Q: What sequence folds into this?
């Protein structure tokens, strides 16, 4: 459109289709507020049922990436178990974390859905060694 082009006055009038869109949006917003906790839980459960896997990517300090699929109801501990099998030094303490900001995953008893790793997530691996040992 050109800068000197002006719209006709009827362009700014509310049309029936515009009115219908406004009302339907408002009704949708109100229906969110008026749900009972059981309705919200049922809706959340149906959303969870639709997602069948959580794709986890573990990034190591040397640049390698391990990708594995888990069921969303599995716990983060299943990822830790897998890492214990594939890392070179399972005898050394390690942790996984997310960024930004850097946040260690401490509670491995939670499922992937609860932690927020569904449908997938990138986590980082690091050995938990004192500074003087690392250098």
A:
């Amino acid at each position: 459109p050109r800068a000197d082009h002006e719209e006709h006055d009827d362009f700014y009038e509310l049309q029936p289709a515009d009115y219908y869109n406004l009302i339907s949006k408002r009704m949708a917003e109100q229906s969110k507020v008026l749900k009972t906790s059981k309705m919200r839980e049922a809706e959340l459960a149906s959303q969870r049922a639709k997602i069948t896997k959580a794709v986890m990517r573990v990034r190591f300090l040397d640049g390698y990436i391990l990708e594995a699929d888990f069921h969303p109801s599995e716990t983060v501990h299943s990822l830790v178990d897998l890492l214990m099998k594939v890392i070179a030094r399972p005898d050394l303490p390690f942790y996984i974390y997310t960024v930004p900001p850097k946040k260690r995953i401490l509670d491995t008893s939670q499922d992937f859905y609860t932690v927020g790793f569904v449908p997938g997530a990138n986590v980082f691996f690091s050995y938990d060694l004192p500074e003087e040992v690392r250098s």
Notes: The helical segments are 16-33, 37-50, 76-86, 112-115, 131-134.
